[in-house]
Amino acid sequence: MRWLVGWSSTAAGHRPPGPDLFGAYGEPDGYPDEFGEDTPEPVGAQLLWGGVDPLWAVGDWRPDETRVLIADARTRIAVVGLCGATDDQLLAGLFAARGGALRHLTAWPGSYTVVVQVDRRTTICGDLAGARPVFHTPWRGGTAYATAALPLADLVGANLDFGHLAALLAAPEVPAAVQDSTPYEGVRRIPPGHALILRAGAREVAGYEPVASLAVAAPSADPHSAVDALREALVEAVRTRLAAPRHMPGAGTDPGPVPGMGPADRRADRMPVPGIGADLSGGPGSGTLALLAAGLPGRPGTVLGHGAGAGERLLAVTFNDLAVRGREAELERAGTLAANPRLRHVVVAGGAEALPYADLDGPLTDEPGRSLVSAARHRARFAAGSADHFTGHGAREVLDAHPARLADLLMDRKRRHLVRPTMALARADGSVLVPARVYGAARKLARTSYPAGMNDLAERLRHRRFDDGSAVAGAVEASLAALVWATPGPAARWLTGEALADVSGRLQAATLRAAAMGPGQRPGDFRARAALARYAADVRVLEQAAEVRAQRLHAPFLDNQVVRAGRALPETLRVRPGARAAILRSVLEGAGVGDLPPGWGAPSHATAEAADRAGLRAAGDVLGDLFTSPFLAEAGLVEARVVREALRAGAEGEPLASAGLADIVSLELWLRRLLSRRGTCWTGTARRRAAPAGLTPPRRKALDATGR
After folding, report:
1. Could you give the angle at the alpha carbon of 289 between the alpha carbons of 235 and 546, nearest 5°?
2. For strand 3-8 and strand 142-146, is the pairing parallel, antiparallel, or unpaired?
3. How far apart are the first and last CA of the chain?
4. Residues in Cβ contact with 361 at an 8 Å cutoff, skipping those fewer than 6 apart
5. Which H or E element spans position 676?
6. Backbone phi, then psi, for 329, in 5-degree steps?
7. Across 322-471, where does the E strand assignment appear?
8. Is 679 exposed, middle or buried (0-12, 13-18, 19+ CB in 10 A)?
9. What pLDDT shows up at residue 219?
10. Are strands 45-49 and 202-207 parallel, antiparallel or unpaired?
């Protein structure tokens, strides 16, 4: 894990110059340290700047991933991550931020976090997708912040927030349920598209993106111009990563003794290949990135002098699932794409050992996530990749149309554009009644207010109504279930009544606060942003759980500029069947990449559902032991007997939502790893550790007739 961490204190001056990145920064006659010798410091950190408002970079950051520029004695900027801006652009953004304009700090290509300090005002910008979040918590009269929640929880000794854990299971894609909380009490998350502003310890959360008005229809965008803008954003995102310095993992280092292996074998076994590579699954997202990276001018492949085709060919990795069949067509398309002379193809075969739930051991991640149960499956693919590895994560969430966008079209009086998606659903279902049902559901959503939608979800949770949307369903049923403001999560049906009542209360409290203003956007746009934030959070967990040492995973579709370009695509273009593949095909053609194989971008009939069920069957005994006396039951979130029965039913092939079972198992694994850890993220005499009280849920107040 890698993160930034710092704080803004209430002290009125600066410390004398210390051994920070600038050496002599500060005033010689400044104030002494506010906390004396008891000031904690993060373990394994690099001090970016000191003073009463310090900032550290923690973890194995590469030298080119941390940049700090000073405009004057009181104005400075730190950019951590992969950023394509030049020093002059960073300084221009710093001066703009000094005047209050924050959006400039988020408009450079790449994936990064920006921290700006002007006198005693510190600004930390989050990203639009939520893959690089910012957290904060009160500390010693001021505010501590970080790009990870666990260090802040360790700093203040925060206990577990059981209400947040219940919301993650009951309604993970509903911002009103999850709110700005984290698994740790008192540690808060800023929403995507917002920045945290600290002034001498006082905090403020401000948005930097313009909000669309509900009073008028959304401005019509030219589809061709929108696709061109998306192509430019994607090409620039890929080019930025190709232009970054190349790294050679393991050069001159020995990862440690392994029986039967010499030093060279150990390095080859434990380190990724030097250079740049990409996933090549046969799908449109990863295929687009691989072809763009291979086709752009330059040398996207391995470092000169290392490996076959040094400096010329990009390493393309395809995962071949031998335990579950059904993706033969995608594998064939991947092989056809890999015939490109600028690609070097590697196929990673995965059998029963690479199924979900096959390997439940792994590192502690910052937060829980569904991908914990499949981390070993992804790690097998990443380990065969390069030091810098492209993935297609986020392409579906950024480019596809959420079913609720049909209601947005009705609100904008674009009814004729509902014909194509409804007829496609009718052909898939074989019923002539589908268009009328879909139109009726979209019309109802367009006329339903946000508070009414949240109250409806609260009632469904309280009365355990999970008939639609929580179980496995066809395309029509799933689309109809998504045509609402909010739906229960796939794991909600297995929660206790007490946990569901807690989440229902959170929803009603949030509804009362938002009743006067609403969410400020259309229901389809609201659902799409919430789904993207949820997916980006799980991608972040996956990167931590499946991390390969010295490797960097790149997801250009989650970059700020790519997300903005995706949001600018007109809804009339999004809702067409096969829109994502058509858009990415146009992107590739505009970049000079053609000759795509027949059927490229066609949806696969095999889903992760089959792999999940095969994994449940293979790991039945292990999961049964895991839920003999689960921590989730001790916390009052589930009943062990109910979960064991659900796991058994899922392994036997009953129509259950396997994603919900993955949520429950992942949260149980995460709790066990958190509570069994030793040590902390901080040094000092007063160091603490997260969850010191263990699994001691707070005493819940009795609910009144209104559920409050």
Report:
1. 125
2. antiparallel
3. 39
4. none
5. helix 658-676
6. -65, -40
7. 343-350, 386-390
8. exposed
9. 65
10. unpaired
Residue 21 is predicted with a pLDDT of 38
The neighbour count for residue 67, using CB atoms within 10 Å, is 17
Does an H or E element contain 543, and which?
A: helix 523-545
Sign of CA dihedral 454, 455, 459, 460: negative
pLDDT of 399 reads 94
Q: How far apart are CA 45 and CA 337, in angstroms?
A: 43
Chunked mean pLDDT (size 10), the chain, 708 residues: 92 43 35 55 92 93 94 92 95 92 94 95 96 95 96 95 96 94 96 94 91 62 91 95 81 45 48 86 90 76 49 83 85 88 88 91 94 93 92 94 91 86 78 85 92 93 75 73 93 95 92 63 91 96 92 96 95 89 93 86 75 92 93 95 94 87 96 93 82 76 43
Q: Which of 365, 663, 622, 341 lies closest to 492 in space, CA to CA?
A: 663
In a 13 Å sphere around the CA of 366, the CA atoms on its Cβ side amount to: 27
* SS (HEC) of 677-697: CCCCCEECCCCCCCCCCCCCC
> Residues with Cβ < 8 Å from 612, sequence gap 6 or more?
356, 650, 658, 659, 661, 662
φ, ψ for residue 42 (rounded to 5)? -70, 145
Q: Amino acid identity, residue 126? A: G
Give 389's strand partners: 277, 553
Give the position of tokens 């949806």.
603
* CB of 549 closer than 8 Å to CB of 249: yes
What whole-number distance in Å separates Cα of residue 435 and Cα of residue 654? 29
pLDDT score of 259: 44
Cα(13)–Cα(19) distance, integer angstroms: 18
Residue 92: its H or E element = helix 87-98
CB neighbour list of residue 509: distance below 8 Å, 6 or more residues apart: 708
Token pair 């739906």 is at which residue? 487
